[in-house]
Amino acid sequence: MRIDTVLFDMGGTIENVFYDIKTRSEAAKQMVKCLEEGSIDIKLSPEDFLPIMLKGMAEYKEWSEKTFIESHPTEIWHKWVLKDFDLSVDQVGKISEQLAFLWETVGMERDIRKEAVQTLEELKKRGYKLGVISNTPSHTQVYYSLNKYKIRDFFEYVSLSSIEGMRKPDPRIFKKALEEMKSSPEKAVYIGDTITKDVIGSKAAGFAIAIQIRSFSTDRNDANIDKNVHKPDYLIENLIEIVDILDKENR
């Protein structure tokens, strides 16, 4: 059956993502400032808040990856990161999206892959329906990045785990995207940078083809995967390769 729908992961796939202790430290600094501006004084310096932030987000990540649940930003920051500060849900809720956005944009460096625009243009010329499915604790970061890169209009559907309440590799988030795009799994391709979330999830949802492109975090995310059991249909080094792959598949 002819492929007519192409869905992408965001971070690590459409864009390069990098983080280290320097980016995380800057995020902690801006978060403390954000908390102060929200009339929340945690009585800690950014340096002292940093390990608390990292521990809370690591614990949340471990839980969410086991349950396939993506919590609302308010719950993430109130229950996991700021749990020891005796703050009300309302207090945290007023600034939770700002904190999530800082985690995603200051705590990480992001830039669009140089071949992304050309790839999207070629796919659009060929009439493919394009979409994004992204695991993210923020409601706004993905849209911010798509607009910043001037590629938002390529995509007719954008799915965020923080809004859906579920995260890849849960096959339901893939199936819902296809329903919204009025497509079906046997006509769909998914491109992502991990086997754990992208390949396993899209294949569980019945996608015809799963394509992997490696990123900064691929090895970390896929460290415990048996690559003899779980593997993509194609492993690429450059997004533009997708065009030739689909030209061949649709002959």
Question: How many DSSP E strands?
Answer: 8
Report the span from N to C terminus: 10 Å
Categorize the overall geometry: elongated
CATH class of the largest domain: Alpha Beta
- Please count the helical segments: 12
Which fold name fills CATH's third level, the topology of the largest domain? Rossmann fold
Describe the structure.
- The chain is of the alpha/beta class and 251 residues long.
- It folds into two domains: 5-16 and 112-249, 3-Layer(aba) Sandwich (Rossmann fold); 20-105.
- It is built from twelve helices and eight strands.
- Helix 10 (195-204) links the parallel strand 6 (188-192) and strand 7 (209-213).
- The mean pLDDT is 96.
Give the SSE layout.
Layout: E1 5-8, E2 15-18, H1 21-37, H2 46-67, H3 73-81, H4 89-93, H5 96-105, E3 109-112, H6 116-125, E4 129-134, H7 141-148, E5 157-160, H8 161-164, H9 171-180, E6 188-192, H10 195-204, E7 209-213, H11 218-221, E8 234-236, H12 241-249
Helix pairs in contact: 1-2, 1-5, 2-3, 3-5
